Amino acid sequence: MKKTIYIFNDGEIYRKDNTIYFEGEDGKKYLPVEDIGEICVIGEVGTSKKFLEFCTSNQIVIHYFNHHEYYVGSYYPREHYNSGYMILNQAEHYLDICKRKCLAYKFIKGSALNIINVLKYYNSRGKDIEKNIENIVQLLDKLDIYMDIDQMMAIEGNIREVYYAAFDDILENNTFSFDVRSKRPPLNKMNSLISFGNSLLYTSILSEIYNTHLDPRIGYLHSTNNRRFTLNLDVAEIFKPIIVDRIIFTLIGKKMIQAKHFNKSLNSVLLNEEGMKIFISLYEEKLQSVFMHKELGRNVSYRRLIRMELYKIEKHLMSEKNYEPFISKW
Q: How far is the C-alpha of 33 from the C-alpha of 289, rounded, in Å?
């Protein structure tokens, strides 16, 4: 699969004949366009209409972040797999409340089961989190496909609260104590890691949606409203525990991320550039790593797994096969 390019430095990015080059303080760097699937821009980078047209013709998605590690938005080229039939099916499953609740229920259930399996993994390695697992199982038992989506999301919020309460017991590291979940801005180091990792996952899923017939603007768990994209937020719920959270546990457990990799201001704690690069390196390594997919009987990368999840949603929307979320197994 094609690569993700991350740009941290300030500069200009252009089209040069049939390739891309970036010009910054360190000079020019040429990027082979045939290897690029998406570009994540973190620095202050200028560009041109000609370059954006070039990205469109080569199906390259561009994601923008600011220096506070927040996702700002995306340049989403004209959909090359656009399907009126698929859009109508997506809209039907959103407007029909029973069909919408079915998908919302599956996303929350898949997320909860992956959370439970992550906790079971660490519980089997001597972490005292059995009570957290029991509480989440009890909350999951209350989840009902017939309840309102707001009620489903309330249960999902309670599950995450119990889940996050286990982080300190898993890590046993006072530098990264959790306290409470805070997003904009993150108020401590752990929240900063979660927010940054989730933003990366949202953009990765958005880029994978671009390579399907799905429209990212129509989600089911997250309401389709003034937000530009929502389907990627839905799908991210399934993968946060097994991709983002596992990366965070590795970064802290192996002391790859330390206090020196954060900047603290009056109202926030944010990863610095070195910290972001360390996180991104392990994130990309995770997406490219493979595991044996038991149902398929072959090795699959985590990035390919995301694409496969989207194909399953397509089949559900076309009434070919009911959607069942991916559940990790260790």
A: 23
Element (H, E) at 45: strand 45-46
Residue with tokens 């890691």: 193
Tell me how far apart the alpha carbons of residues 244 and 194 are, in angstroms, rounded to a whole number: 7
State mean pLDDT over 269-274. 90
How far is it, in rounded angstroms, from Cα 39 to Cα 29? 14
CA distances from 47 to 21, 22, 84 (A): 11, 10, 32
Find the length of the chain.
330
Tens digit of pLDDT for each residue in 129-175? 999 999 999 999 999 999 999 999 999 999 999 999 999 999 999 88
CA dihedral 238, 117, 71, 323 (to 10 degrees): 0
Q: Determine if the pTM surpasses 0.85.
A: yes
CA separation (Å) from 295 to 255, 292, 299? 35, 9, 10
Tokens (6 digits) for 104:
């919302």
